[in-house]
Design a protein that fits this description.
Number of helices: 12
Keywords: DNA-binding, Repressor, Transcription, Transcription regulation
Domain HTH lacI-type: 12-66
GO molecular function, one term: DNA binding
Shape: elongated
Pfam family, one: Peripla_BP_3
Order of helices and strands: HHHHEHEHEHEEHEHEHEHEEHEE
InterPro entries: HTH_LacI (IPR000843), LacI/GalR-like_sensor (IPR046335), Lambda_DNA-bd_dom_sf (IPR010982), Peripla_BP_I (IPR028082)
CATH superfamily of the largest domain: Response regulator
Number of domains: 3
Structural class: alpha/beta
Length: 343
């Protein structure tokens, strides 16, 4: 009819693309932004849906919405522990592949230094943060980051209680394997040397040890808390070497403590695996360099770093995505430092 205005079809939206492809809006958004986080099959399905319904990505508007520095910040608590170097390698593997640069800061287990680094990284306009919270970090730390709208992923330790994305380790499997092996070898007096640091990984590891001991009906256990340094661990081993009725086997909070005790026992003329059993935690490369080799629990820091970086890129690109919690399994790696209990 003359005079009628033509009915304009509504412009297809990203939600229309998602429905057509049978994916979430967040996944569709990753595809149109050329994110490396999407698999080839999903990418092809979304691109086919875009073509079919005539969706056009408004690159100019997207650029206005997301002016970025192409940098991320990573804050870790202890660079002297080789575990964190391996974790950083996993993060870099993803971040470098995505064409971003990384600012790395070392908090030295100081919540105050950590706050300062966050402020400076924010001033430099980082697009997001990966944080392994320093010991004693309060929940308000994460709340402040989310109030700022800062994309953030916690790694290894958490104070956010599910408020932000998190990648850690399932410590129970590796601890179960370690304790089970010691029990099989006849050990009934088993000690655990923990670090005097207040953070979630410490609590989880100690709880995993106690649970494994209870499952195997081992009642005789001693728990000792020390500074997590080679020197403190060496001193403890020397003390225990001269202590009657000391545990016949030791599980350590990490390999820094384990390697220190290995040296301390050796300095006293005792051989791990023969005179007592000794197990570390994290399975850093140095555990295979001492003799006898230090048995340890492998916690896969490269995989944790990769997952943390992938989650951060996802969070930067799709701020509205659901919070994701990932835990990487651990497993026991036996070496010469474990052996049968002596009478």
């Amino acid at each position: 009819m003359m005079g009628e205005k033509p009915v304009r079809k509504p412009r297809p939206t990203l939600m229309d693309v998602a429905r057509k492809a049978g994916v979430s809006r967040a996944t569709a958004s990753l595809v149109v932004r050329k994110s490396p986080l999407v698999g080839a099959e999903t990418r092809a399905s979304v691109e086919a849906a875009m073509a079919e319904i005539g969706y056009v990505y408004n690159l100019g508007a997207a650029g206005m919405r997301a002016a970025r520095s192409r940098t991320i910040g990573v804050i870790i608590p202890n660079l002297s522990n080789p575990f964190f170097g391996v974790l950083l390698a996993g993060i870099d593997q993803v971040v470098d592949g995505a064409g971003l640069a990384t600012f790395i800061a070392h908090s030295s287990e100081s919540a105050g230094k950590q706050d300062g680094f966050v402020t400076r990284m924010r001033e430099h306009g980082v697009d997001g943060l990966i944080v392994c919270p320093a010991a004693g970090t309060a929940p308000r730390f994460i709340e402040r980051l989310t109030d700022w709208g800062m994309p953030v992923v916690e790694a290894l330790r958490t104070v956010g209680a599910g408020v932000v994305d998190y990648v850690g380790m399932d410590q129970s499997g590796g601890m179960e394997g370690a304790v089970a092996r010691l029990v099989d070898l006849g050990h009934s007096r088993i000690g655990f040397v923990t670090a005097n640091l207040n953070h979630s990984a410490h609590d989880e590891r100690l709880a995993a040890f106690r649970a494994a001991m209870a499952r195997h009906g081992v009642a005789s256990a001693i728990e000792i808390e020390i500074d997590p340094t080679h020197g403190e661990a060496m001193a403890l081993a020397r003390q225990m070497a001269g202590t009657q009725d000391a545990p016949t086997a030791w599980v350590c909070h990490n390999d820094v403590i384990g390697l220190g005790m290995h040296r301390g026992f050796s300095d006293c003329g005792l051989v791990p695996g023969r005179d007592m059993s000794l197990i570390g935690f994290d399975n850093v490369a140095e555990t295979d360099l001492v003799r006898p080799g230090l048995a340890s629990v492998a916690t896969e820091p490269v995989e944790i770093g990769v997952l943390a970086a992938q989650l951060l890129l996802r969070r930067i690109e799709t701020p509205e995505a659901e919070v994701e919690i990932r835990r990487v399994p651990s497993h026991f790696v036996e070496r010469g430092s474990v052996g049968a209990a002596r009478g």
